[in-house]
Amino acid sequence: MKKNLLLLVFISFFALFSNADLLAQAPAPPSVTSPIYYCQGSTASPLTATADAGYTLVWYGTNATAGIPSTIAPTPSTTTVSSTSYYVSQTNGVSESARARIVVNVVADNGASILNFRCDPSQIAAADKYSSVFFDWSNNPTLIPDNLYSYTYTIDGGTPVSGTADNTTGSHVQIFGMSPGQSATMTISATLHPCAPSQTVTCTVPCNPSIPQPTPTFTQIPPICEGTSPPVLPSSSIEGIQGTWSPSVVDNTTTTTYTFTPNANECARPQTMTIEVNPDSPGFEDFSICSGTPAPTLDTTSPNGVTGSWDKAVNNMNTDTYTFTPDGGQCASPQTITITVLPSNTLVDFTWTVTEAFADNQKVTLSAETAGGDYLYRLDDGPFQSSPVFEYVAAGLHSATVMDQTGCSSPITKTGILVVNFPKYFTPNNDGYNDFWNISELSDQPYAYIRIFDRYGKFLKQISPNGGGWNGTYNGHYLPADDYWFVIHYIENDVVKEFKSHFSLKR
What we know:
Blueprint: H1 2-24, E1 36-39, E2 56-59, E3 82-91, E4 100-107, E5 115-119, E6 133-138, E7 149-155, E8 161-165, E9 172-175, E10 183-190, E11 199-204, E12 224-225, E13 243-246, E14 256-262, E15 271-275, E16 277-278, E17 287-290, E18 308-310, E19 320-326, E20 335-342, E21 347-354, E22 364-370, E23 375-379, E24 389-390, E25 396-404, E26 412-419, E27 425-426, E28 449-453, E29 459-463, E30 473-474, E31 477-478, E32 482-492, E33 495-505
Parallel strand pairs: 1-4, 12-16, 17-20, 27-33
Antiparallel strand pairs: 2-3, 3-4, 5-6, 6-9, 7-8, 7-10, 10-11, 13-14, 14-15, 18-19, 19-20, 21-22, 22-24, 23-25, 25-26, 28-29, 28-32, 30-31, 32-33
């Protein structure tokens, strides 16, 4: 009995000693970030904490003591302005740490904003100009009176670096130890005013002009055949310089020069590369020659620069086809063309007809005497046209030209095409211009005559087309400006004709 009592005391003492040892080995609370700020009504994220190796987090919600443990992190509510404490511990399954406190503050939007966040190289000392960047922004003492800002930046997309700026450090951050061409991207937020939108700016260290900038080199892309799959331009040079090309995609239809522009952080010069595209066709075209003319010698270098040979010499009497075979080692395929032999000297002569005298629309129609062919027609020095008819031709003598469109016949020009009409008015003011009225186109008809009347039918004057004309007087007196009538007797196509109309006297 006495021995059993001593064993029970020993077991109880050992258990007490073991619990004290385990208590002494309890872990520290997990690492947390506190306080955390949210803007009222914003979307919150589950809370976070960092447990030691081999430990897991235990969340207790807002319970500083007791409560139901959970492995799921709570998500704070941002519905109302508040300050709420959340608790978390860590455990290894044997012992559990004390609880760490995370304070979540939900604040109202007071309209705060970060002012004039920018790169400001003017505040960088000369010695640091090519090794640092300077981020600056303006104080907002009314809406952000604490002047406390949080920032995170990366250099060329590297590891993020975080920090804070306050009244002690000023509203700016300068990053040192950078190289020319490197860029830093920084995001800042108002630490205690989460409703103020965060802002992000990228600042780049300028290239040092005193250091020669390298010119990137590339392996020349060999000529490609037109229409084949185009090669891809390299995104970096042999030296590893990164950049972009313009144009960015190789054109497989024509020889093109491409410009490589290094990225700003490379501090390198632009470079060019010309990629030659060899044609898939020689590029010859069908053509015509005049029969009997010297036969042309076909070129052995095509319009597209392809060299080769033809299957035969040109026959200058008959239309035929000819095949060009490119020399080896070229992209082009053989090509066949047709050389059309046109008949020569088909234009023999031409005649013309003119609408009867005094017609409202005076037309001249040319008629070529030919042995076939297509022709162009011209009146006086006007443009050539395909139609042989010319309308509303002015009175007087004209010339006409007929030309073979193929050039296989010599053009023919004739003069003496007479269009008869009368002047619609004259101005007898003795200025030496248009002082007399007459129908001079009939001056070669000695028996033609013209009688002139006033509007009431009173006979005033008889004149001859081959004379000087009427000066607008009657018995030596000037007649007033008015319309006057005339009757002309003349011969047309061996027929005696009479024509009546009127004209104006203007003073």
